[in-house]
Structure prediction request, 225 residues.
Amino acid sequence: DQQVKQNSPSLSVQEGRISILNCDYTNSMFDYFLWYKKYPAEGPTFLISISSIKDKNEDGRFTVFLNKSAKHLSLHIVPSQPGDSAVYFCAASAGSNQFYFGTGTSLTVIP
Amino acid sequence: EAGVAQSPRYKIIEKRQSVAFWCNPISGHATLYWYQQILGQGPKLLIQFQNNGVVDDSQLPKDRFSAERLKGVDSTLKIQPAKLEDSAVYLCASSSRAGGHEQFFGPGTRLTVL
Prediction:
C-alpha cells in the first residue's frame, strides 16, 4: 500500500524558471512532511520540511506547500538552477516513527 | 562533522548466501534507521532503533533479515539467506533525537543477488 505517491516520475524545466514537484498522501495521521534530494550514488539529503499545523514553509529558493484537505503537498524551486538536477523524494511520518517515502521525481534543469 | 558511514559500498552474492552491512551513525545521534531502496522505488523503512532498542521493525522480513545495534552506536543488518528480490540499495540514516524528523543518510550499500 503506497501511502505517499509521487505521480510524476520526471520533470524538465528551463534554468531560471519555477520547478513544481508534487506529492499526494493517503494517511490522515501523517503530521510531518519532508523533501529529500538525491544525487546518483549518494544517500538522500534533507531539503525542507513542514509540520501539519502549517500550510507553507520557505527556505531560500525552496518553498513547500501543504494542503491537508486535499492530502497534497508540493515543492517549489525558484529560480531553478542546473545544480538542482536530482531525484526528489517526498516523505511523511506519523509521530516519531513510521516514515514513508514516495517513489521520487527526477528533475532536470536545462541550462 | 563526519557523516553516516556505511560499508561495503557494493556487494555481489549468490542467492541463499548470507551478507552483512555495517553502519556507523553521526556521533551522538540516538536514532538509527535502515532502509531498503529497490530500483525505481522510494526508500522503505526496515527497522528503527532508539539507542540500542528497537522502536519499529514492522516492515522487516524477520525470517531472513536481522539487525542489531550493540552499545547504541554502530549497527549491522544481516540477510540470511538472500533471495533475488533482496537486490537493492540498503541505506542507513541517523537522527539526533527520538522523533527527530530530519534524517542524515549514508551513501548506501548496493546489493546484487545473482
Remarks:
- Chain B is about 0% helix and 50% strand.
